[in-house]
């Protein structure tokens, strides 16, 4: 595997999930694989789970890890071509990525969208330029429009905890006070559409996701209809795709509570975290039996480890 | 050992000091103990000695180490329960700590006091919530009211360098221009009260420490009286406990000089560092034969290593 | 080797280059040498290449590495003696360096010049105080007036890619919008003057480097004259040595283009990076066959590894 940026980079989703669960059982079985290999984790935005879980995954595989907080420790990168660099950018991504590729065998990159210009964000310019210029395999640590390691961890979690062959999985929009990217819901949708699940998306009118990610999903504006008989509920806020990056007024009543869960099939509640309590998701759910958010976060290690293992095998 | 937050977490202080000195002699003897184990060091405030010495201690024991500067690289944590998180905090400590516990076998946490609200600081809310929610053993890297790794290193240093069975140890207040926490003197006091030393605390009127930490100590406002025949002098500024967090006017003459040392028993001078030269402590002492501050800082490694070793043994 | 701050610390430049190229062929041959040894990399200024390459070099030698971004994670250090520290500096370099020496077997330090006071910058006060007080071997990760790991990597690159016994090497000044240090050109000059090369420096009038670094070089204000028959061209901006730290008006036409390269001997173009495209150096060169800037950056690993290896051997 040379690139892990979306579900389309994975020819055999089931096999990858199975491999991740095997690694969870035997975390150090492939420690020789990464010996003398270096993983660079490049963050243009903050991170907690992704940083720790990916670092741990690489260490489990015997690699050395170098973490670069470019947003804090580095300098501003120029992304555009054909500009005279007489402004505030200090280095072009062409050189920066190529140089990182000299020092690392595999690079992980995190870069959030600006949420101003949809075309620019959905072109994945920053992530794609890293891939183009670094010359080594690249793992997305969340890009402008996708968060594939999160989605793989989500699928692993569902596979691990499901009690029927084909569970009903619901992605439900949740309120927030800040405009958030569509990366997590986009990614979750495209992975679920490839998994052995019945997949429904529920959101208020106006929060339609880009159709490229939701082929095969049932989409509804009726949250209760979606929740009925659900086995897994994935709670997530996102800003509108059209008008891009906006928060639409109202919809505060979309926050999930224990009462709402009654119509589900004792659904387990998921969230990628961080979560704003009692705004996105009620404390009573997060502190109760339904929540599997911490377990889900723990599975980020095995998702990352399965991906990095495949990249190491391909070096 | 599941928790190292104060001297009360240590059933056998002498044995722990002895173990630390043994580790100093054989630093890598237990390198197999930490294999495939991960230590997360979480800093909500800056650090130099604690970060480096604890990282080195964990590496000496064969562990992997992940450093998180939450204050710089992360986001603001919500500490209160029952609040709608529609403000500036991005993640609740309940989730943040629990997730870190998924990735780490042992967690170290640093969190300074606000010095505004004594009750809040002395409740140790932040540190205790980490302990409560992370689900793995926790080492204090200095909390609002204590700095136990420092105090253990101090006791190790005294044990190592003492020339009589029961040396006289003096903690003396020193001037400063900023209000500093009581964590180091609190901690030093409670550890000395458990050690084989004659322990005296000297400070100007108004700088009384909370009595919970000083049971068994001789307390005086007369610095010369305290210094007479002292074998070890621990220099440290702290702000008042009542009125909380305040600096009281005057007392600049409490800074230690070579002249003052004459009445001691060729006392060795200690300080936890960082120290402001010629404000808290004179350059002539720091650059002279009496100072053991750098040696003391070096012993931070063995203090941390003894504690982490016990935690690893209990995993 | 106890100190690596300039070419004068290396008795046998050729042998060191040869050793570096040997390490490039067998990167892990000396992994036992650094077992249980710790390298601390202390940054008072940002870094990308130096941080990653030095970290990788130390890991290749089996060392543990601790990175400290003192400018971001630490606090302000006092450098002057005989001052009462009642201002903004929190710790004196005497204590900070000595304590780091307790935790590290080798220390790397980066500290840029202020470009205000030439005498102060050229006294290398910060770097020299680290050396004086830390008590362990020190590698310069770029100091106020030199960048020796860069220059060693440059010499390695020339040795590796030269097609004649004694190539012509030209250091040519390039335009910039900000005043930059003289560290890279100073260092490059003193290393080239010790290498098996014909060395020419070309710069506009007023950009004369300090003569201490350029003994043996041909110096000209005529760029074309310098470029004629050049085998390697080293492009770099620097601010004036006199008036110190200034940018002189004009000279934008000193930027190198493919057209200018025609009079060279198919010269390879070098730059220490980061480079501002189409201001310091044209995109057409950076994206063309002449540029070896990424390869050059890759060689930073072997330069650092050769130096650290010698220090480890001397411990």
Automatic annotation (TrEMBL), chains A, B, C:
Pathway assignment reads:
Amino-acid biosynthesis; L-arginine biosynthesis
Q: What SUPFAM superfamilies does this protein's entry cite? A: Aspartate/ornithine carbamoyltransferase
One Pfam match, by short name? Answer: OTCace_N
**Residues annotated as binding N(2)-succinyl-L-ornithine:** 142, 176, 236, 276
Record key words, sorted: Amino-acid biosynthesis, Arginine biosynthesis, Transferase
Name the Gene3D superfamilies for this protein.
Aspartate/ornithine carbamoyltransferase
Task: Report the EC number(s), separated by commas if there are several.
Answer: 2.1.3.11
Keyword Transferase annotated? yes
State the reactions this protein catalyses: N(2)-succinyl-L-ornithine + carbamoyl phosphate = N(2)-succinyl-L-citrulline + phosphate + H(+)
Annotated residues that bind carbamoyl phosphate are located at: 47-50, 75, 110, 147-150, 272-273, 300
Q: Mind listing the GO molecular function terms for this protein?
A: amino acid binding; ornithine carbamoyltransferase activity
Q: Which InterPro entries match?
A: ArgF'-like, Asp/Orn_carbamoyltranf_P-bd, Asp/Orn_carbamoylTrfase, Asp/Orn_carbamoylTrfase_sf, Asp_carbamoyltransf_Asp/Orn-bd
Which BP terms does GO give this entry?
A: citrulline biosynthetic process; L-arginine biosynthetic process via ornithine
Is Ribosomal protein tagged as a keyword?
Answer: no
In the record, the note on similarity to other proteins reads: Belongs to the aspartate/ornithine carbamoyltransferase superfamily. SOTCase family.
* Record text on subunit structure and interactions: Homotrimer.
State its role: Catalyzes the transfer of the carbamoyl group from carbamoyl phosphate to the delta-amino group of N(2)-succinyl-L-ornithine to produce N(2)-succinyl-L-citrulline. Is essential for arginine biosynthesis.
What this protein is called in its record is N-succinylornithine carbamoyltransferase
Q: Which organism is it from?
A: Mucilaginibacter gotjawali
Q: From which lineage does this chain's organism come?
A: Bacteria, Pseudomonadati, Bacteroidota, Sphingobacteriia, Sphingobacteriales
């Amino acid at each position: 595997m040379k690139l892990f940026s979306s579900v389309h980079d994975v020819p055999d989703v089931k096999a990858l999930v199975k491999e991740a669960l095997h690694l969870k059982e035997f975390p150090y079985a492939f420690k020789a694989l990464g010996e003398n290999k270096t993983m660079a984790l490049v963050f243009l935005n903050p991170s907690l789970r992704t940083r720790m879980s990916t670092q741990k995954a690489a260490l489990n595989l015997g690699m050395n890890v170098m973490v670069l907080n470019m947003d804090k420790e580095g300098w501003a990168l120029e992304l555009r071509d054909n500009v005279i660099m007489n402004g505030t950018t200090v280095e072009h991504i062409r050189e920066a990525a190529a140089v990182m590729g000299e020092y690392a065998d595999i690079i992980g990159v995190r870069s959030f969208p600006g949420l101003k210009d949809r075309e620019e964000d959905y072109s994945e310019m920053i992530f794609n330029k890293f891939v183009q210029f670094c010359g080594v395999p690249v793992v997305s640590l969340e890009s402008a429009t996708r968060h594939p390691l999160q989605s793989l961890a989500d699928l692993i979690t569902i596979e691990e905890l499901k009690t029927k062959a084909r569970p009903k999985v619901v992605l439900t929009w949740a309120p927030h006070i800040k405009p958030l990217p569509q990366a997590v819901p986009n990614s979750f949708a495209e992975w679920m559409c490839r998994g052995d699940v019945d997949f429904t998306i529920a959101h208020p009118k106006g929060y339609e996701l880009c159709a490229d990610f939701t082929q095969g999903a049932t989409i509804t504006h009726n949250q209760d209809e979606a929740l009925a008989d659900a086995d897994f509920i994935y709670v997530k806020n996102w800003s509108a795709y059209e008008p891009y990056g906006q928060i639409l007024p109202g919809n505060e009543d979309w926050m999930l509570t224990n009462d709402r869960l009654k119509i589900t099939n004792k659904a387990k509640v998921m969230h990628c975290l961080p979560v704003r309590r009692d705004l996105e998701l009620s404390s009573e759910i997060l502190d109760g039996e339904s929540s599997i958010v911490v377990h889900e976060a723990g599975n980020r290690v095995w998702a990352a480890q399965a991906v990095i293992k495949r990249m190491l095998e391909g070096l």
